[in-house]
């Protein structure tokens, strides 16, 4: 089935779906990518795969014309973050995540200078709710309020985009404006298990709420037919974008 590839200025509609390769080995990830074929254009590599040969696999995907999101959530002293980002930029990845702490974000902006790499700041993990923030030592504050505060700091420091739950996308958009990206994990197609995510929405809801890119992992990579799962989500996104 032919999928729409030209929704206008945003480019290929398929790029709005980032497929999370949350798998334990490069062999398994490569098999999923092969099964998805041209239906998928953008892949996320996180800790699990990155530390199992995923950096070389990222270069392999980039060499095939795919886009790669390295979800490493960097957070360390400034110099370490700066040099780490500089190394990632040389790989040719499209996106890299850092935690939305001001010192970390400042260093990341310096490290990516002169490259096409876009830095995404992770505000509050989608597996966290208000009680988790209290348990982590934060004064009682709604997760949405902390997301908005960190989004404002990211905007002021020149970060390219924000990672937040789709349920906070509208508020984040009001903070960062139209020229910053919003990337939303915690996306689950209708009927899919929420798993360990606590703030989830469907693909259609994510786009309606203002997300530029949706990250979907388990509902695709664990599907009996990963390509069909991708195509269904892209069709859903296409209907909202039309």
Descriptive notes:
The chain is α/β, with parallel strands linked by helices. The protein has a single domain (13-241), classed as TIM Barrel (Alpha-Beta Barrel). 44% of the residues lie in helices and 15% in strands. The chain is built from 10 helices and 8 strands. It has helices at 26-36, 47-63, 78-91, 102-111, 130-135, 143-157, 169-176, 203-208, 218-221, 226-241; strands at residues 17-20, 42-45, 67-74, 95-99, 118-122, 161-163, 181-184, 213-216. An 8-stranded parallel β-barrel has the order 1-2-3-4-5-6-7-8, surrounded by 6 helices. Strand 3 (67-74), helix 3 (78-91) and strand 4 (95-99) form a beta-alpha-beta unit. Helix 6 packs parallel to helix 7 (169-176). The longest helix is centred in the first third of the chain and has 17 residues, at 47-63. It is globular. The two termini are 18 Å apart. The relative contact order is 0.15. Residues 4-10 have low confidence and may be disordered.
């Amino acid at each position: 089935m032919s999928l729409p590839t030209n929704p206008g200025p945003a480019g290929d509609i398929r790029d709005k779906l980032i497929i999370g390769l949350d798998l334990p080995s490069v062999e398994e990830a490569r098999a999923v990518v092969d099964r998805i074929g041209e239906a998928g254009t953008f892949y996320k590599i996180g800790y699990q795969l990155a530390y199992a040969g995923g950096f070389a696999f990222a270069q392999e995907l980039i060499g095939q014309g795919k886009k790669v999101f390295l979800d490493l959530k960097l957070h360390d002293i400034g110099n370490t973050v700066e040099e780490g980002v500089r190394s990632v930029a040389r790989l040719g990845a499209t996106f890299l995540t850092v935690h939305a702490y001001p010192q970390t974000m400042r260093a990341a902006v310096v490290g990516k200078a002169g490259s096409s790499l876009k830095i995404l700041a992770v505000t509050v993990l989608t597996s966290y709710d208000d009680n988790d923030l209290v348990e982590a030592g934060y004064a009682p504050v709604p997760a949405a309020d902390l997301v908005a505060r960190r989004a404002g700091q990211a905007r002021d420091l020149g970060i390219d985009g924000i990672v937040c739950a789709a349920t906070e996308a509208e508020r984040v958009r009001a903070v960062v404006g139209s020229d910053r990206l919003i990337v939303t994990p915690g996306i689950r197609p209708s009927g899919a298990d929420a798993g360990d995510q606590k703030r989830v929405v469907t693909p259609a809801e994510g786009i309606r709420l203002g997300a530029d890119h949706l990250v979907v992992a388990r509902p695709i990579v664990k599907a009996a037919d990963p390509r069909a799962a991708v195509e269904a989500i892209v069709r859903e996104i296409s209907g909202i974008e039309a």
